Amino acid sequence: MRAFVVCVLLFIHCAYAQVLYDAFFGKPLKTDRRNFLNSINATSSCTILVEPCKKHEGRRVDGTCANPKYPSRGGTRTPLLRMLPASYGLGNTLRTSLNGSELPSTRLLRTKLLSDGYPTDHNFNSLGAHLGVFSFIDSVDLNVLFRFILVSDCCIGNTPNRVNPLCISIPVAADDPYLRRTGIRCMNLTRQDTFQERGCVSNTIPAERYNLPTPLLDLSVVYGFTNERERQIREYKDGLLKSEKRNGLDYPPGNGTICDEIGANLLPGIYLSAMWFFRKHNHLARELAEINPCWTDQELFETARYINIAEWQHMFYYEIMAEFLGRKNALSTGIIHDTQGYVNDFDEHYEPGVYHEYVVGSRWFHTFQDGRMDLYSNKGEYLGTRPASDNGLRSGVLEVNNTEADLTQGAFRQPSHKFDYVIEPDMAERVAGDLQTALDVSAADISRGRDQGLPPYNQYRKLCGLPYAHKFEDFHDVIFPDKVEQMRRIYNDVNDVDLMAAIYSEKLIDGGFVGPTLFCIIVQNMLQWRKSDRHFFEHGDTPTALTLPQLNEIRKSSTARLLCDNGDRVHEIQPRAILNPGPGNEIRSCKEIPSVDLTKWTDDRCFHKDDKQNREEYTQHQNTAYQLWESYNYDKK
Question: Which residues bind heme b (predicted)?
Answer without folding.
Answer: 366
